[in-house]
What does this fold into?
Amino acid sequence: MKRDELNDLAAFALVAELMSFTQAATRLGMSASALSHAMKSLESRLGMRLLARTTRSVRATEAGERLLRTLRPALDDIQAGIGALSELREKPSGTLRITTLRQAANSVLLPMIPDFLADYPEIGLELTIDEGLSDIVADRYDAGIRHGHKLDRDMIAVRISADIKIAVVASPSYLAKRAIPKHPRELAEHHCINYRYTTSGGTYLWQFEEDGRPFQMRVEGHLAFNDGDMILASALAGQGIAYVFEEMVTDHVVKGRLTRMLEPWCPTLPGYYLYHPSRRQTPPALSAMIEALRTRLAQAESQRGATMPPLRKTRQKANR
It folds into this structure.
């Protein structure tokens, strides 16, 4: 295969995945018109249309979809092989694209980034905050960070944080006119601030435990958000009761800005995991980040006398 043919196939895969000549051309460092001409030449050589073009969009034809399914694993292997060559360099290099939950970014990633970049100055990081479940393969991320019970199937998953305790809180101003609930059932008498999923449109069911048995509750209120920071801000403003991660509110509780309640019923949820595709070779830059995150967790857990589980490969379906 000639070099230009391989370049055109890689360009086609990018156009098909981004569904945009403009975005693909920007990634490739060329003009959209030159890229369009290259795709027409590729279609001419193959004798079939690969891309259906309109004035507003571009998408793969049936033949294009079939070609893309063949190309993507091969291109990924080539990219991984090229990335592995950096093992011969003194330091890992390249840009890591990671999709993460906001709280995971705040509590796990941001504290370790200064030391990590100091140790690996040739690595760049691109973090995308996404409270949903991105398809890291289709969206071309190197890795994602989610809770342990919400991982894509067939991924290598590495625990990067301790388990997370839930806290139910409200401001003193909200509770001044209402009785503090003594049992989760009494939440029905309160304004609760809901978390709404952007993917399904449903609201999160609050999880509790009683005598070791988990149960869920659907709560009602005037407010719903798809962002934990907005839920916390509304609770601080006296707008209702919030169901949040303990680490988000510890300082507010200590300083009296929030009151904690229903603690005996609040569960502990799986912590954060970094997950990435199961490949024969993990890019050196990603390996360096995984090692840095595991080292940071091990140091934190050694202070509590805990041990860290080994890598695991997930097989459950993602909750979307």
About this structure: The chain has three domains: 3-75, 89-151+273-308, 164-269. The two ends are 41 Å apart (CA to CA).
